[in-house]
Amino acid sequence: MVETVVFVIFGLAALFGAITMVWARNPVYSAMGLMMTMFSIAVFYVSNSAHFIAVVQVIVYAGAVMTLFLFVIMLIGVDKEEDRTENLPIQRPLALVLILSFGAAVVVAGRLAWTTGIRNPLDPVNGTVEAIGDELFKRWVLPFEITGLLLIVAAAGAIALAFFKDDDDAEVDPWR
Amino acid sequence: MIVNQFLVLAALLFSIGIYGVLVRRNAVLVLLSVELMLTAVNINLVAFGAFLQDELLAGQVFALFVIAVAAAEVGIGLAIVVLIFRNRSSANIDELNLLKW
């Protein structure tokens, strides 16, 4: 019962945040809406006993990524109006048909029952830092290291993209 | 523990993300929508992991990997957006037809 109430409250909050993100004219409101969605999803992680993932979600998404987004929104300006006219006239009715068929597919899939694994009710899933680290640094250590390499490459790439300039002031740029 | 409600919510959030990617013209908003789609996938991973009571914690570990990849993607993507805005004074993706043949 408590699970259902928590799900309904935070599910509506997540949907509200997502729709705010998509519809808001002001990009800052969009970022705030996505932040609200991220916090609500962290609550779902906790209710699925994935405590460490919830903490990572709040720190990485609601903290770091949203701060980065807000910085970029402030950098490139928030008062640009964007037009939402469609170039293809068939797009809206086609989207309506596709969304209805997709909703029907979700409903049909929800009624099907399938088993993808053996449930073990004696051992509930353990989402603490200790359990995650035990798996992450033993079984998943190679993907973990590749992910670390990916993050280093991404950080270096972002710095390189922001640092190198294409115009004529090459003498103030020490790397060219 | 029922998993269906999480799957439906994730499908809704993913669809909203796709809508944002297709409709918004601002490149930053497109990246925000991509983040929403990645997070919706994470809900599925964690919910299935809890539903199957996976002892290997594969769902949660994969959610961690997806979060890391999303962080890398958003860093590169926002750097590219800033670079485009610096060169063309616009972040409207409809005006970016440089690669159009």
Oligomer: heterodimer
Report strand % of chain A.
under 5%
Most extensive interface: pair and counts? A-B, 72 and 68 residues
**Which word captures the global form of chain B?**
elongated
Say what the CATH topology of chain B is: Helix Hairpins
Helix content of chain A: 55-70%
Q: Which CATH architecture of chain B would you pick?
A: Orthogonal Bundle
SS class of chain A: mainly alpha
Number of domains of chain A: 2
Low-pLDDT stretches of chain B are none
Largest sheet of chain B: none
Number of strands of chain A: 0
CATH class of the largest domain in chain A: Mainly Alpha
pLDDT averaged residue by residue of chain B: 87
DSSP helical segment count of chain B: 3
**Strand/helix succession of chain A:** HHHHHH
Beginning-to-end CA distance, first to last residue of chain B: 52 Å
Structure characteristics:
A: 176 residues, mainly alpha, Four Helix Bundle (Hemerythrin (Met), subunit A), 2 domains, extended, B: 101 residues, Helix Hairpins, 76% helix
Describe this protein's structure.
The complex is a heterodimer of chains A (176) and B (101). Chain A is mainly α and 176 residues long. Chain A has six helices and no strands. Chain A has helices spanning 2-23, 27-47, 51-76, 91-111, 129-136, 141-163. In chain A, helix 1 (2-23) packs antiparallel against helix 2 (27-47). Chain A starts with a helix and ends in a 13-residue tail after the last helix. The model of chain B has no long low-confidence stretch (mean pLDDT 87). Chain B is mainly alpha-helical and 101 residues long. Chain B is 76% helix and 0% strand. The interface between A and B is large, with 72 and 68 residues.
